[in-house]
Amino acid sequence: MGLTFINALVFGVQGNTLRALGRDTPLHQFVAGAAAGAIQCVICCPMELAKTRLQLQDAGAARAYRGSLDCLAQIYRREGVRGVHRGMLSTLLRETPSFGVYFLTYDVLTRTLGCEPGDPLLVPKLLLAGGTSGIASWLSTYPVDVVKSRLQADGLRGAP
Length: 160
What we know:
Largest sheet: none
Structural class: mainly alpha
Strand content: under 5%
Radius of gyration: 18 Å
Distance between the termini: 29 Å
Shape: elongated
């Protein structure tokens, strides 16, 4: 359910930014994708913080968190708003170029492959473009993702 909302936000921001920039160029695709990546961090960062903390709970011991919302509530009580947004800068540094690379790569590949309605190979071409774009996106930012995850896990030292 959450991913549906995030995807709607990403594609809405990307499309509106692209329209605001005017011409559809590869540079504008990158900028529009980067804007979408930056905006979705506000939601994505706390969700990933909870996911990281839940994954790192000691499986054999009593659970510190009963779920994502409980995890975020406990972090908020202990650390405040700043704690809930732990790793925001590294998330921004990951998501902004990552989404820019994704939308740029997807645009270039769909144009290069000639993805036009009515093409009998349209679906395989779109799958290839989407998959390749995802790979390029992650390759461009994987080291930053490792740093982000470690920053978010760092708060566990003081956790119950």
